[in-house]
Automatic annotation (TrEMBL):
Residues 1-46 form the NADP-dependent oxidoreductase domain. This is NADP-dependent oxidoreductase domain-containing protein. SUPFAM superfamilies: NAD(P)-linked oxidoreductase (SSF51430). It comes from the Eukaryota. It holds the Pfam family Aldo_ket_red. It comes from Gossypium raimondii.
Length: 61
């Protein structure tokens, strides 16, 4: 779902990095279907509700 959501975004070119054969097969499986416009809109609205994390992670220790 994440890979297809990224593909649906304008000006985004996802470059997945597979660490093993299972991950590569999962990425290839994402190419056989697409999210509907309604699904993309719903995911986009959910993403807007997320507060970004700021600062370098070490500062959170």
């Amino acid at each position: 779902v994440v890979l297809n959501w990224l593909i649906a975004q304008e000006n985004v070119v996802p470059i997945p990095g597979a660490k093993n054969v299972a991950q590569a097969k999962e990425f290839v499986g994402a190419l056989g279907w697409r999210l509907s416009n309604e699904e993309v809109d719903e995911l986009r609205s959910l993403a807007l509700e997320i507060s970004p994390v700021t600062g370098f992670p070490v500062e959170k220790l």
